[in-house]
Amino acid sequence: MLFHSWHFAIFFIIVYSVYLPLGKTKFYLYWLLVTSYFFYGWWNPLYLLIIAYSTAVNYYAVVLMQRSQRKGFWLTLSIVNSLGLLGFFKYGVFVTDNLNALLSLVGAPLTIPAPGILFPVGISFYTFQAMSYTIDFYRGNIEREPSFIRFATFVSLFPRLLAGPIERAGNLLPQLREKPEISSENITDGLSLFVVGLFKKVALADYLALYVDKAYAAPGLSDGLTLMLATFAFCWQIYFDFSGYTDMARGIARIMGFNLMLNFSNPYLATGLGDFWRRWHISLSSWFRDYLYIPLGGNRKGKFNTYRNMFVTMVVSGLWHGAAWTFVIWGALHAVGRFLTRELERTEFYEKKVPKLVKQLSVFVFVTFAWIFFRAESLSDAALIVKGIFTAGLANPNFPILALFFCLSIWIYQFLFESRIRKFLDWTPLKIGVTCLMLLYLMIFTTSGHEAFIYLQF
Amino acid sequence: MRRSFIFSSNSIRLSWKSWIVVIAILTGIVYLLPKLWRGLEKFDPSTDELAARSTDYRLPYSLSNDYWMFTRWSRYACSEYPILIIGDSVVWGQYVTMEQTLSHYLNERAGGNIFANMGVDGIHQAAMLGLVKYYGKAISNKRVILHLNPLWMSSKKHDLSDEEEFRFNHPRLVPQFIRKPACYRPSLAQRAGVVAERNISFFSWVSHVRTNYFENMDLQNWTIQNPYRNPLEAITLEVPIPENRPKSKPVTWAERGMIKQDFPWVQVVESFQWNSFKKLIEILKATDNEVFVILGPFNPYVLTEESLSRYNDVKSKMEEWLEGEGVSYRSLSDLPSEYYADASHPLKEGYAKIAEELFEIESFRKWIRKETAAWK
Question: Is the pTM of the predicted complex or chain greater than 0.90?
């Protein structure tokens, strides 16, 4: 059930009309849990067993931590369990494929059968969210949640269940302890977020996908300029797709009285790769910072260890996105880029002499280049695209001017938003005009087809 | 205690007052734009330069799926013609020019602008019902000749009573939820879109814009096909002029190499198309129209002996019902074999012959005389 589908519209109308009167009673949590499980079970009812299991293990691990002196043991057990779940469902095929390749390389007459399992959508998101609760309790950052129903709702809350934001227990659980505040401001805020998200997804991401998919499906048949523009288009496609999803998720949650964290903050205006990761998928990058990078030592133990920790964090982050070597390379590339920009940022010349716009464009070019590995179907395809961009010549790329216009307009809008003339963008008639144009564009010029969100596969 | 909420990384945050303004603007646009468009987009069949005579106008073939244009054409036809002929490509004239259609020969005999060609390519009876019900609301208090092409009942597939899913003509016109054909399984979104299009003229206008200006595509796909064209330039505010030539080569069915067909035929009691046709008659009558049904033409030479016998059985059952309901009708006589282009479409000689046959019928002459001053 995608947010931009009729199924979801009907689902939400029913859910919300019961939720409104229930919001003032203690039963609203039960309703949220039931509807969230229904929402998830819509994809495949078997997924419910996995989320229920993951929820129960993390919840009772904390119960046992509180009762026992062996807190570390129960934490380890719950983390091993969560990572085991992820490993089994998400990386099972990847691991067996690679082991088989290795076995064949050494000539061993043995093939490990690949687990024939479906990948449960959203597992990476809710597993990380549940883990953060257990780890935060272990660290003494939060108190144990006494209600299992509330905790299960925290893990499965449907607006953010499939692709985040990965909320922290410290932010969302307290909101679930109170009666939801459904004010007219929440509703209008939610609508505003939802409309922008819908436009990003349907009018922009799905549009760019038409060009990207064609070029990336057969990279060997495209010229350098086409591949370059397809990569540029993918750079924007993935941003519009994922940030559009997040806007819709936050909008729906807001309408229901919940505040989910900001997940994107104009990432293509970043002046360094560190800055990029503070703006891109913020809930995930901050998760890795708090639960992997800092525990590894962060930047406290010298340059070598800092870079080692960064490298590990980025590669694991790459693997989190998908079980393929392309994602590992993507993560590693970001790690290398991070080292370089970190060193550059420390030089006086770079800090004071290099114009901000040059820094922003450099980061954009690097990030765009790295997306090649994220989007390519295989490592060989990625290599073909990189090679093609530099050697396959320049032909007419047939890149739609309208798509270019959209990308550049939004980029300029973001520059203005972060500039001193931001107040101009807050001018109400302008906001009303832009909203009308977005809605009219959606009504007149787009189809009713539904492309799934890219991040649902993670 | 509520936590602080970082709204977003853009400024599009509207208050409820602003939302009311947005809703008011959009409602105004949705309501007014299709009406304004009718004034902006030139559509006057009487000045059609390609039609030999203004009476011979038919909708351009490329707009066969443009129901918003059908609405405009039906409004125009209702104001300019006393009698409308509604049917599929047999009425439209698949193998003939505009001056060789049934409406042309009938007008020739009547000697004036009497009969409007409201044929739409591929419009089977179930679709015809939807077309008249949702897009032909202007058709009231008129005389309507309804063409019934028996081909649409020649098999379960044609009849849309097959269980197996397949693509068929004009799915946007068949029932979407209740009593929808078993072979029709679109997504909920598609069906909801169709219902919205039928009931809110803005959406059928959107469909018209896509069909007429963007090669039946949404803007995004159109710009992928035409990357450097300005979409605004594509909106020329002109309806295409119908091409005055046959859509398919006008040769006989034998020359076309057609062999004998063993159509199984669907019994009228079970037929989805026939039941739709009956409902269509009811709807037309309910809006004070007087209906005259033309059953056929149908090429009997293309059928095997067994199939022909089954066809005659089906036909007699339909005649029985029309008779019983007091609906004026004519079961057309068989044309000479060389007058058929395929199983159901006549060639120009066939249309002339049908017009001649109709004018020989006293009841038909009486039926049109009721209102037609130009009748001689």
Answer: no
